[in-house]
């Protein structure tokens, strides 16, 4: 994403849905003292962690953190050289509004690079735990195109959003991401800590029921994704990277 965005020394960068500080911190290390990175997220708790990380790396003079969502937050106008959004765009209730706001913030020829997940069958680290959760809790599948991890997996829909938001020279790339975990329990803990749809469903369960469901997910990971020569878990996932220019 950093390469696709053309980030370099002196760049002004915007990171949407930065979470605990990536890829904004990586960008800040590249732009140097003459550049700047604005990182936003709707979670004040995550922003607090990101800010602490930036200070520990001596990047506090290069980075600013701001709470808000991409659809409504007041962004600098026509000054950003490169904007990034890693696995956050598909959770926006109004993708068009978010893209329009980001587009306005970009300088002429500025680039916006977003990473979203491909279709469920190509992203097992999220899809198979979700399938188990919905079965175990009798939750129905989410409505088509509702905000969620796979809502922008359709390349045509994704490209249409960018084009209608006045981005030009739109290109799409697909990349394989292999997630490795030492144990199945480590995988289950990772999913629970990072996958917001999983967190939402589990939050409505009692502590005892929650443990039972997590055990089912762990067992499924062992049966389907454990390496033959060790107890480690390996899952191949596909991400879609899209680039648009102002």
From TrEMBL:
InterPro entries per the UniProt record, alphabetical: Methyltranfer_dom, SAM-dependent_MTases_sf
Stretches assigned to the Methyltransferase domain: 8-115
Name used for this protein in its record: Ubiquinone/menaquinone biosynthesis C-methyltransferase UbiE
Residue ranges of the TM segments: none
Keyword annotations of the record: Methyltransferase, Transferase, Ubiquinone
Superkingdom of origin: Archaea
GO molecular function: demethylmenaquinone methyltransferase activity
Gene Ontology terms: biological process: methylation
Enzyme class: transferase
């Amino acid at each position: 994403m950093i390469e696709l965005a053309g980030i370099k020394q002196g760049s002004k960068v915007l990171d949407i849905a930065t979470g605990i500080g990536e890829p904004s911190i990586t960008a800040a290390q590249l732009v140097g003292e003459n550049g700047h990175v604005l990182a936003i997220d709707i979670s004040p708790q995550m922003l607090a962690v990101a800010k602490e990380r930036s200070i520990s790396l001596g990047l506090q003079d290069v980075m600013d953190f701001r709470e808000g969502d991409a659809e409504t937050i007041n962004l600098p106008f026509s000054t950003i050289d490169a904007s990034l959004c890693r696995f956050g765009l598909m959770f926006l209730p109004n993708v068009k509004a978010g893209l329009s706001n980001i587009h306005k913030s970009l300088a002429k020829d500025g680039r916006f690079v977003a990473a979203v997940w491909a279709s469920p069958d190509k992203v097992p680290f999220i899809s198979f735990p979700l399938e188990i959760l919905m079965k175990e809790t009798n939750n129905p599948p989410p409505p088509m195109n509702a905000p969620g991890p796979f809502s922008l997996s359709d390349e045509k829909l994704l490209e249409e959003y960018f084009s209608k938001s006045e981005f030009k020279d739109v290109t799409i790339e697909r990349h394989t991401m292999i997630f490795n975990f030492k144990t199945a329990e480590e995988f289950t803990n990772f999913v629970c800590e990072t996958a917001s749809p999983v967190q939402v469903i589990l939050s409505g369960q009692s502590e005892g029921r929650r443990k039972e469901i997590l055990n089912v997910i762990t067992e499924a990971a062992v049966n389907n994704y454990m390496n033959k020569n060790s107890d480690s878990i390996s899952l191949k996932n596909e991400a879609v990277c899209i680039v648009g220019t102002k």
